[in-house]
Design goal:
The structure holds three protein chains of three kinds. Chain A is mostly helical. Helices cover 73% and strands 0% of the residues of chain A. Chain A starts with 6 loop residues before the first helix and ends with a helix. The relative contact order of chain A is 0.13. The chains are: A mainly alpha, B alpha+beta, C mainly alpha.
Chain lengths: 283, 377, 265
């Protein structure tokens, strides 16, 4: 049946070629650009001289933004996990005939543009919004205190925006949990939390791993939330820096070095996380 | 394609998956128009053999001949062979009519209506032509699968565990139905199953397969009455196998079993070795009180004690312990419930059987090969 | 009290769901807003005008929507075709290099959009390829491809390979088998892959922003106007896209349920 050995290659070729040309080549190009002499410009052209100094400059100047990006992304990921778990659990194991409708409802908000939803948060969290006034009145927020343009708003925005990336993998793995297992755990005299801790949580680990990765990666590279919900100073993320370096300052070598560093950092973080989760928690 | 015809012959057919030899150089001749069964436990290579004939696996070596044409390297759609798949594989998005017409349409037949209608009435599904497969019962789906294959008038029809998904009663009914249809259309049927009863009910010839090899090939009666290996003796029905040593050879071979003399016709001794397994089927043995000499004329006889007696409706089963025999050589006896048996547990009994119901196998073979219960342990 | 304890997970779940919808409600509400000035983003006065005349008052918006629709459609078609072929090869054939192909598909999904966008920019700039419609299209097909493959692969995994074998057994060659059996059975998976592609493409800002040159897509228009004041018509487009997508998904569900019901009858 598989006598025509070239058939699968033929089927793969167009897509693989596309990815090779427009994903792999750009990555190499990015790497090369990051080693150009930074004294050039788009107009005069760049000289390739293996200028590793770009990385030193990038790190020494922008390490706070790197650190902030990963901190924000990590907090947002944990928050998203805490928020999404009950939702995924309810849909997977408690919803019965409503399952499909609830699933549609999880995806539905994301048919509205990412930017518009984030802008909507600026309206909700804005200094003159009724929500902020309410928080001030019950003294959760001090008089004149604000939410918009704070790190809190940025983390909240990141958490909100990547919630379905957390919910759907969690749902997929929880759906495979046989409800009878939970009953069996109850039958064997474990308290409800124990049953969850010993039965459901371990079984949903693949979903937790996939969900955290799918949330963390885009969150750490995002700059829309930082731009729209954040302030001028304490909320700038590495995405903002890269965007400005490329598109406003035209400082390609430094920008490419930053971009390359972000990719490398994520690859290392993800690989070590998958390895840890794969050996310690997945089994 | 149309000119290919004749007997189906597998010649030194071999299939390896990596280091695993699934089918180990088998040779089988299946005469045109016969109902042939490949019988064996799961993993014995029977399904792989079938898939090679269908063209769904390429053989590692060997030939698959229909008449004089080697079809081993032809694509599945270039072979005059069709398959009834396990769990049917009916196309869920096509109705029954289109499922049955599928093969004809692919071969460019213009007017399929007459043939499809005739085929649907052969399997008694005329009324269901426009239903989808999932709207039919298991038995009906089975018949659609059969019709979908048969309509192409293949040289060989392959059936992969065709009745596996049906309940017992329906399975019995379909066995007779399949046999009727095969006789009616006269196409060579090759049937793969692990169910010995199914194979024996339908097939003219059975090949018993084990670990990629053909253990024995013959008519159902031949295999049952005169098994050539311990595997066949145990896999088809049940057998008492006793340690024996050949004492003298003639028309009848004399064998000593723990001091008892047993006679076996020479034609039923499958080995020239002196160490043998002496075999006899439980239902061939008569059991009576030690004092009862009514069956003495049969020829082979042992004296022992009844350990267990269980009534199971159609028969009563006894387990008899013979002094001097090994622990696992207790003899099983099935007695038809014609009269109420005189024998109770604990009684001394005389068990007798005809030498022509005895067989002898090479003692080098594993006495438990093919024993479903022993292998499950 | 007991009722609450029994249904606590469901209640929390529904609260989370409500939270996910808050911004959507705001977008829909603002689409009926008649703001006092362009710079305020608060609800002032109810009006139908924005829905009746979405293109007037925000002259640059409608062309941007058209650009986004065009790019969304073409990149969906491209990514769906390329991705379906790849998924089929990966699921139905054994061949050397499958691991490499899977890795090549996984990496774009594991890369942040800034990196995807900026690396493409460096390529286009060093190749002196003019930025604009075509570069956006190239980028969108690239990042949609992996998602199509994942979606279609999942559908293929749930499909009994014996169906395709049965077709071949019944004289259908490879192409006929694909066309008559695989493709129809795969259709729901391909449809959801296409829907996903379109929404990814239509909504993308970051990658597009790097590679758009002077071409303006709808998200880029929104981004631009976020600095200058957002016309309420933007929320009309956002709400309309939301409602249309919701309608498509609900319709798909109803058709699916009908089919299942008809089969069960």
């Amino acid at each position: 049946m598989t006598s025509k050995k070239w058939v699968p290659y033929l089927l793969l070729a167009p897509g693989a070629l596309w990815l090779a040309l427009f994903f792999l080549t750009p990555m190499f190009n990015l790497g090369a650009t990051s080693l150009y002499d930074p004294s050039g410009s788009l107009e005069t052209g760049y000289v390739m001289n293996g200028h590793v100094g770009n990385y030193v400059d990038a790190l020494s100047e922008y390490w706070p933004q790197f650190l902030r990006s990963f901190t924000f992304a990590a907090i947002a990921t944990v928050l998203a996990l805490i928020i999404a778990y009950p939702l995924a659990y309810a849909i997977a194991l408690k919803s019965g005939q409503w399952k499909n409708i609830l699933l549609i409802l999880v995806i539905a908000p994301f048919f509205t543009s990412f930017l518009l939803r984030t802008l909507a948060w600026t309206a909700i969290l804005g200094d003159n919004s009724s929500f902020v006034h309410f928080l001030q009145n019950i003294h959760i927020l001090p008089e004149g205190g604000r939410i918009l343009a704070t790190p809190f708003a940025v983390v909240m925005g990141l958490t909100y925006n990547f919630l379905p990336f957390m919910t759907l993998p969690l749902f997929t793995s929880l759906e495979k949990v046989d409800p009878r297992l939970i009953e069996a755990a109850g039958d064997l005299y474990s308290k409800p939390f124990n049953g969850f801790h010993r039965v459901v949580l371990p079984l949903s680990m693949p979903g937790v791993v996939a969900g955290t990765l799918l949330t963390f990666i885009p969150a750490s590279g995002d700059y829309i939330n930082a731009q729209l919900l954040g302030g001028i100073k304490d909320t700038t993320m590495i995405g903002n820096v890269i965007d400005r370096a490329f598109l406003e300052r035209g400082a390609y070598p430094t920008a490419a070095a930053l971009s390359f560093l972000l990719m490398a950092a994520i690859v290392i973080l993800v690989a070590s996380y998958v390895k840890r989760a794969g050996t310690d928690e997945l089994v | 394609m149309d000119q290919i015809g004749g007997d189906l012959r597998l010649v030194s057919l071999r299939k390896e998956f990596g280091d695993f030899v699934a089918v180990d150089n088998i040779d089988i001749l299946i005469p045109k128009g016969s109902f042939f069964a490949l019988l064996g436990p799961s993993g014995c290579g029977k399904t792989t053999t079938l898939r090679m004939v269908a063209g769904l696996e390429l053989p590692t070596a060997g030939q698959i001949l229909i008449g004089d044409h080697d079809i081993a390297s032809l694509k599945p759609y270039n072979r005059p062979v069709n398959t009834v798949f396990q769990s049917y594989a009916l196309f869920p998005h096509l109705d029954i009519y289109e499922n049955v017409a599928f093969g004809l349409r692919r071969r460019g037949v213009k007017d399929v209506a007459t043939q499809v209608e005739a085929m649907l009435s052969l399997v008694e599904l005329d009324a269901f032509a426009r239903r989808k497969p999932s709207q039919l019962s298991g038995g009906q789906q089975q018949r659609v699968a059969l019709a979908r294959a048969l309509i192409n008038r293949p040289e060989v029809l392959l059936l992969d565990e065709p009745l596996g998904a049906l309940d017992l009663k329906l399975r019995r009914q379909m066995q007779l139905e399949l046999k009727r249809i095969q006789t009616e259309v006269g196409i060579t049927f090759v049937h793969v199953t692990h169910d010995q009863e199914e194979a024996m009910t339908m097939a003219d010839t059975i090949a018993v397969m084990n670990q990629g090899k053909v253990e024995q090939l013959g008519s159902p009666m031949d295999l049952y009455e005169n098994p050539k290996t311990t595997f066949v003796a145990n896999f088809l029905g049940q057998s008492n196998l006793l340690t024996g040593e050949v004492m003298d050879r003639g028309d009848f071979v004399g064998v000593k079993v723990w001091g008892n003399h047993i006679k076996i016709p020479a034609s039923r001794v499958a080995t020239t070795n002196a160490k043998v397994w002496v075999g006899v089927r439980p239902e061939k043995i008569y059991i009576s009180a030690e004092s009862n000499h009514a069956h003495d004329h049969l020829g082979n006889q042992l004296i022992g004690t009844v350990l267990e007696r269980s009534y199971i409706g159609v028969s009563t089963q006894f387990i008899v312990e013979i002094p001097g025999f090994l622990d696992d050589e207790k003899i099983m006896v099935f007695e038809q419930n014609v009269d109420a048996s005189e024998v109770k547990a604990g009684d001394r009994v005389r068990i007798s059987w005809d030498p022509s119901h005895t067989f002898a196998l090479d003692a080098k073979q594993d006495a438990y090969a093919g024993d479903v219960l022993a292998e499950a342990e | 009290m007991n009722w609450i304890r029994k249904n606590i997970i469901m209640i929390v779940g529904l609260l989370v769901l409500f939270y996910m919808f808050i911004p959507v409600f705001v977008v829909i509400a603002l689409s009926f807003n008649e703001p006092k000035s362009r710079l305020t983003y608060t609800f002032d006065k109810f009006t139908f005008d924005n829905w009746l005349h979405p293109c007037s008052g925000a002259e640059a918006m409608c062309p941007a929507v058209m650009v986004s629709l065009k790019i969304g459609l073409i990149s969906t078609i491209g990514a769906t075709i390329l991705g379906t072929l790849m998924a089929y090869a990966l699921m139905r054939y054994r061949f050397r290099g499958k691991g490499v192909a899977n890795l090549l598909l996984f990496l774009p999904m594991a890369s942040p959009e800034v990196v995807l966008g900026s690396s493409l920019l460096t390529l286009f700039v060093s190749a002196s390829f003019p930025l604009g419609f075509w570069t956006i299209l190239i980028a969108h097909i690239m990042f949609c491809l992996s998602f199509v493959v994942v979606t279609v692969k999942a559908r293929l995994a749930g499909m009994d390979p014996r169906l395709e074998q049965a077709a071949m057994d019944l004289y259908a060659n490879e192409w006929q088998t694909f066309r008559r059996i695989t493709l129809p059975l795969l259709a729901p998976g391909i449809a959801s892959a296409a829907l996903l592609s379109f929404s990814l493409s239509f909504d993308d800002f970051i990658v597009t922003n790097f590679n758009s040159g002077s071409t303006v897509t709808f998200p880029m228009f929104v981004w631009g106007s976020a600095q200058r004041g957002i016309p309420p018509q933007v929320n009309v487009i956002g709400s309309a896209v939301f409602l249309i997508a919701l309608a498509i998904v609900v319709l798909g569900q109803i058709i699916g349920a009908r089919k299942r019901k008809a089969l069960a009858a």
